[in-house]
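Good morning C.,

I know you're traveling, so I'll keep this short. The sequence:
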Amino acid sequence: MMDVDLLSIKEQETALYYEIHAKDWAERRKKTTEPSFWQKEFEELKKLQIPKGKVLEIGSGAGREALELTALGYEYYGIDTSQELLKIAKKANPHSHFFHTSVYDLPFAPETFDAFFSWAMLPHVPKDRIAKALSSVRQVFKQNAIGCFAMREGTGEKQEPETSRWFSYYTEEEFEKILQSAGFKILKKYKKSSRPDLVWLIFFVQN
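The tokens, ready to paste straight into the viewer:
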């Protein structure tokens, strides 16, 4: 069970939005991600030839990407701050493992995972907490584990007035320095857009 006290007020408000709107969010994702928006990243994962083992998704949402990662041969584990989204994810992926927790309280032993993905939860982390989040992430991955981070391109941070969700935005150089300071080696980086006003910074890294 998630320790809410580990989340900032901004993160709690974001988690509450997904809790309240879980069903609508899951339905909208189902309609707009066929094939998955992250298909290129799955292909990159194959090219990197990461040993098939345990993979952690940081921000599993409704479990859309869990299907893709399981199909690649990984034993899937996912965390999310929304219990309602996790219920939907578990129903769609009955043989995968899901945990109601945050990035600050990962219930896994050190060096558990061979690979990781994050394209939902970390953009919601306030900038003054991103170093703490990445430090927590590193502890549960094996040495030389490879993963992918997707962050929103831009500057500053803000709360969306219509949803109360908090978003942090980074330039490529800014987040690259943050990853290096956290102890990650950057293997590949590029940008992609999901809509005219939203560009994602994609980083493949090694622990």
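Safe travels,
E.
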